[in-house]
């Protein structure tokens, strides 16, 4: 009796505890259920609120974005009108620049929206070029939208300066050391052979003097990193040709190729528009090149240490100093008549200066990239406005296309031969040769310069040659930019060997586009 009573009490205590525990669990479950109901209810109400706001009268999303951008564009015009007055009205320079910029931006965006199945994206710069061409050749628009030659020339030279700055900053010493001779061959050889072949072809087909033929050759001899670099990055991300270093090679060599073409064009420009014998002009051009190299090295060493690393806003100060020195070098050299010095000075200045910088180099690239984003629509829009359908003759157009096509054929063949001694197989050599043809940015800058110089020099007998140079440059962009992008993206997977990118240590520098 004494043993059973405690056991019964113990069992009763367990029953009480179990009932209390079950009550607590049920209470907790009830409270959790109520809390989840509250959370679900609050979430449903939160999801309902945006739906109600979307249905409200003020628009949101994409429509709101377009309305806001339109109002900002209109207010920008209002500000410029309040400052400049008549120059911002239809027919004025500021009005023309604003309209060209806006139309070129719209042309680039529209081309980005065009999606054709199994066809790569076309470069937006083509839409910018066609926007300017459309404005020029529609009488209602061209009557009110135009820009003076002085303004247009200055903007193109500033755009050229930004291109050279980005080319100098984009040169990677490590990649150049790794690629060595093959990069030098690819950047110099095809450009020079196309310039020489263009000079010969244009001399016999277009009746160009030899100096004008070489000038035209260096205009069309440069490739466009704006087309090549994004296509190469796309192939690299997918693993094509990365073991052989093909994307690395093409990206690194594209910057050098532009420098060679711009330097050769500046030299030919000095010869074409100079008086005196050819030997004197060649020696003068060589003097300008050496002077530009010397000044560029001195200024490059200067910007390595000024501003010093302990200053605030270091990246912004370095970018402003680089841009101001480079613009002064390019525009100043043109002003005093040593045209070949400014561009070379800018490239060497930025390359030497960037070698000393570490993190600030990336920041300077971003700032110059922002400046290029504003200048690119203006550049291609202005180039498109230089080409008038009424001034083009069918015979001239056909001869220009024939000259460009034959020179491209020589370039592609010579590039294939150059790569024959670099360790690539036949498919890889074919891909490199065909990929080394897109043209865009340099042609947009250099094409109109000869025409502007002929107008400034009051040399009407040189204007026909200048207009033909402009026409060939326009056709080079129109034909090779989209076709080059298509060739790279379509033939890359078929001609290059694919490897897993995660297992490969890639050395491809993310160069800026220009």
Keywords summarizing the entry:
514 residues; mainly alpha; Na+/H+ antiporter like fold; globular; disordered C terminus
Describe this structure in words.
This protein has 514 residues and is mainly alpha-helical. The chain has a single domain, classed as Na+/H+ antiporter like fold (Up-down Bundle), CATH 1.20.1530.20. Helices cover 77% and strands 0% of the residues. It has 20 helices and no strands. The protein has helices spanning 4-54, 61-84, 93-113, 124-137, 139-142, 149-170, 173-179, 181-205, 210-220, 225-238, 246-272, 278-305, 314-336, 339-356, 359-385, 394-418, 426-435, 441-446, 449-456, 463-495. α16 crosses α20 (463-495). It is globular and about 60 Å long. 43% of the residues are buried. Mean pLDDT is 81; it is low at 1-53 and 507-514.
Tally of individual domains: 1
Any idea of the CATH class? Mainly Alpha
- The arrangement of helices and strands along the chain is HHHHHHHHHHHHHHHHHHHH
Instruction: Report, as a whole number of angstroms, the end-to-end distance.
Output: 101 Å
CATH topology: Na+/H+ antiporter like fold
* Overall helicity: over 70%
Characterize the overall form: globular
**pLDDT averaged residue by residue:** 81
How many strand segments?
Answer: 0
If classified by CATH, what would the architecture be? Up-down Bundle
Question: What would a concise description of this structure say?
Answer:
By secondary structure, this protein is an all-alpha fold. Helices cover 77% and strands 0% of the residues.
